[in-house]
Design goal:
disordered N terminus, homodimer, 8-stranded mixed β-sheet, about 375 residues, Immunoglobulin-like, alpha/beta, Rossmann fold, 2 domains, 18 strands, 6-stranded antiparallel β-sheet, 9 helices
């Protein structure tokens, strides 16, 4: 066998697998597009191949879909204006149907709508990988008795963490939103990178971050986007989440890691559905949590007196921080303002954060970057 | 704000993000397809929406692409024959362009051709999640001096592993193939589940499994599928991989984990490109490795005397196992047979494994399930 033939043979196998197939005749090399392409001015060119489509649009996180134009080679294309450095989720709408970009390996895992992301680098931003000591991400699997299923959770340990050292660490329980999976805060939120950078700069205390699966019942996902109109499922989702977090996740983490179990060393925060879970779990268990963060929270009926029975100004003695953030262009801004008004009427101290932005990970990465430095002081 | 309005508002935000956009007018609910759908007889129905496409095919790992038919609602559809239980990678070919399935959250991460997978469950198979004690997956990040980049590696620790206990564990270095990323063996190969099950059944010794990024230079990926024709890059890829594994990964792992450093407690195995890396690294460093596995290996020129200088029958005293496997329908079967013939001429003992199958993960999961029980005996 000649060298050339060997290489051909190897490539053949690669291509065959690349196309998820294997045939008796050499398959064609898949057409290749360099997309998305980030330019020096931070504009980004997206390309997509759909030779027979009538209408192709780029749907980028936080913007209206924009039309792509077919070029002379048959590829649909659009170039954005220069973008603020960040990671942007996106999909391609082809004749009204949401598609992933098959040429971009940067995926946004999601249980209902997986998508892609493009990274526009910005030196100095908290989620940029830098040459500082890195923490470690641990992926755990177990069978939940409360939820009656097999599930997973992720744990970030900070640089220098050692299970055999004497140091005990504070813990932030960090919750994802509806449709995310347990990897959301690391794979999309880059929480590990944010913590690495904040810790290296001395801006955040070294802490353990626990990122559990955020559903009390997976029926919430099986029902798809319509799940929220099934109020019994929605209510079970919130109540079982709280139960399994308190009776399974926290005990597991506290037996597996060197954790300071003092309530002043335990925080809970989350985004969207996870923001509501943080409020419901945290404010109703102030004997366990002293630090609470809610980022763009939503999904609970606005019957606050029912959701937080007995909550009054005496909570101020236990709360080290109640941090409530929402983007001003997020439609959830109204319910967040209403909730803060209710807290004010009750005399419960809290921090109001309104930032530019919609219901996007760009907002939540900034929320975490601002929130984490406040903890465990 | 009424309860109904609140729910609408929340859903609105979810949908908006789902579509990676947010508009001033309510976006349409994305069309939803239940795909892929595994039936009781293990046949699978795949659906895809491409209203203006002329030709849509299902390209499933290990098979020829098959045509999908447009149904009355405009969805393209095909139902397979009953399948052997497994995880199958697949893509959808739309007018000749490979697409991902936007309705399936089960993704196959890959640096060149991300894809989807469908799970046809089969009780008792080694990669099926069962209610046995689970190991843990650790994800590490560091800056490589040898490769001059930031990279990651995964480490599986078996159930009951404790960094503070006295037990020291053997280690398998397990390498992915060309185009995979470091998550390949866990996300696609389900190596952690396979090890959990084999260990629970007493079929494999508890071991640590280290899964590093398999490239000596990322230029191999930047050049895409054509990289193999750049011989200087290919050669640098193999040589730097070997160097960084030996001088960075192994020392890191042996300082981070409770590892038995005896060469008889160190194995190396991999698939495709990783199979060649296992042979090149293992057979040329028998002072460090006693167990070597190559699954469907390929990618090195067939100049074995040059690749393995000085290798002769004296290796038999050091080799506990040299296990060379390939699918009989894989085009790499010829080079694997030639290599085994060369080993035979040299008088080097090895185990020949030929199984049904092509260049697919279905073969490699079975390879690992057969290989791991042999180790560290």
């Amino acid at each position: 066998m000649t060298f050339r033939l060997l290489i051909f043979t190897f490539l053949f196998s690669c291509f065959a697998f690349a196309q998820q197939t294997k045939s008796a005749t050499p398959p064609q090399m898949p057409p290749w597009l360099n997309t998305p392409e980030v330019h020096a001015d931070n504009s980004v060119t997206f390309q997509f191949l759909a030779p027979n489509a009538q209408e192709v649009k780029l749907a980028r996180e936080g913007t209206e879909p924009v039309a792509m134009q077919k070029d002379e080679k048959g590829a649909w294309m659009v170039t954005t204006a220069p973008l603020v450095p960040d990671y942007y989720g996106y999909s391609i709408m082809v004749d009204g149907v949401r598609m992933l970009d098959p040429y971009n390996h940067l995926l946004v895992p999601n249980l209902l709508t997986p998508a892609n992301a493009v990274h526009v680098p910005g030196p100095g931003l908290p989620w940029e990988l830098t040459n500082v000591p890195h923490g470690e991400i641990h992926h755990h699997f177990y069978r939940s008795t409360v939820c009656n299923d097999d599930r997973d959770y992720y744990v970030y340990t900070p640089p220098g963490y050692s299970s055999s050292a004497k140091t005990k660490y504070p813990v932030l329980y960090l919750l994802h939103g509806f449709s995310d999976d347990a990897s959301g805060w690391t794979a999309v939120g880059h929480a590990n990178v944010i913590l690495d950078n904040l810790i290296a700069q001395g801006k955040a205390k070294p802490m353990i971050v626990v990122m559990p699966l955020g559903y009390g019942t997976m029926e919430m996902i099986h029902l798809g986007w319509g799940a929220w109109s099934h109020h019994d499922v929605r209510d079970e989702n919130f109540s079982k989440f709280r139960e399994y977090l308190l009776t399974e996740i926290i005990p597991r983490v506290e037996s597996e890691y060197r954790v300071d179990k003092d309530r002043k060393m335990r925080a809970i925060a989350g985004l969207s559905m996870g923001g509501s879970e943080s409020l419901l779990t945290g404010l109703n268990n102030l004997d366990k949590f002293a630090w609470i963060g809610a980022f763009s929270s939503g999904g609970i009926p606005e019957d606050f007196a029912k959701d937080f029975p007995g909550l009054d100004a005496s909570a101020n003695q236990k709360l080290k921080l109640l941090w409530i953030a929402c983007g001003t262009e997020d439609h959830l801004i109204t319910v967040n303002r209403n909730f803060r008004e209710w807290l004010k009427e009750k005399g419960i101290q809290h921090t109001d954060i309104e930032t530019p932005g919609m219901h996007t990970w760009m907002v939540w990465r900034r929320n975490l970057s601002a929130f984490a430095p406040l903890l465990f002081r």
